[in-house]
Amino acid sequence: MVSEISLLIPVYNQNVLALVEALRQETTAFLIPCEIRVYDDGSNSETLQQNRSLQGVSGVIYQELPQNVGRSQIRYNLAQEARFEHLLFLDNDVLPVHPDFLHRYLTQAQGDVTVGGVAYQASAPKGAELRWKYGKAREEAPAHLRQKNPYQRVFTSNLLVSRKVFLACFPKNELSGYGHEDTLFAWRLEQNQIPVQHLDNPVWHLGLESADIFLLKTQQALHNLMHLHREFNLGNQTKLLSAYASLKKWKATKLLRENSQWLFPLLKRNLVSRKPSLRFFDLYRLLLLDRYLRK
Q: Can you give the residue ranges of the Glycosyltransferase 2-like domain (predicted)?
């Protein structure tokens, strides 16, 4: 049973007024200590102007960092400065699916780490078909399926965690750019035998990137995955590295390299289309992975 809670929202170029209002509407009925911390990590002037209306709002602590510190550090700062032991992290581009979102966490969470899950709308936003399709197929899942492999879908986009566990296990300055902070966090939870509980308490992921931006982020994420692989021998259990190991076993990586010059543009043409293929996306990532591993 959660007896107090800090709601933590790192912001970068996103209007969070609707998210904060949804949380405040539910917290007005709380009988437990609660705070909402919104930290801006170097957003553009338009975003700053929109979110500054949170200054002075009861129960909300709004801060603007003087410079961008990155995805990991901003979360670490929020955790360090939070008043309460239970921390609920939410990304800045989500909204709760259920009106009793916080109540579900307060009454059902057990242990140090609870993951609520993520959900995607029924149809893809125009231009973001690839990101929507990937999220719908690879990230969205009911709690009973996630619980079968509890360390695989640990997303800080919707995570309730004890302050001591987060500060001990979450990467601070070990990764730069986009991607795989959650992978390293989940690996450390598993190494320390800290149980992860999954709940059916999702948030809508609304801020979906265009295919071009998602492909760029995919490249950045693979760089981080390679760093984790070399530094900690981490990631062998991921589907991507497992698939690459199988290709290597059957001596098919040479075939990838020999055909990469014409495959890359062909795959990208499909991935930025209205009907992208996740099989083509996986092949695109394998080609990138092979390129990075040879550096």
A: 6-133
The answer to whether 88 and 8 are in contact (CB under 8 A) is yes
Tokens representing 242 are: 């497992």
Q: How far is CA 147 from each of CA 122, 150, 151, 198, rounded to the nearest angstrom?
A: 24, 5, 8, 6
The CA–CA distances, whole Å, from 170 to 97, 114, 161, 173, 226 equal 26, 15, 11, 10, 18
CA 240 to the chain's CA centroid: 18
C-alpha dihedral (6, 169, 146, 116), degrees to nearest 10: 10
Distance of CA 176 to the CA centre of its chain: 15
pTM above 0.90, yes or no: yes
The torsion defined by the Cα of 201, 143, 237 and 160, in degrees rounded to 10, comes to 30
Tell whether the torsion through CA atoms of 104, 105, 111 and 117 is positive or negative.
Answer: positive
pLDDT at residue 254 in the model: 76
Say what the pLDDT of residue 32 is.
86
Angstrom distance (rounded) from CA 89 to CA 75: 8
Q: pLDDT at position 175, please?
A: 62
Segments of the chain with pLDDT less than 50: none
- CA-CA distance, 144 to 100, in Å (whole number)? 20
**The predicted structure's pLDDT at residue 42:** 92
Structural contact between residues 281 and 263, judged by C-beta atoms closer than 8 angstroms: no
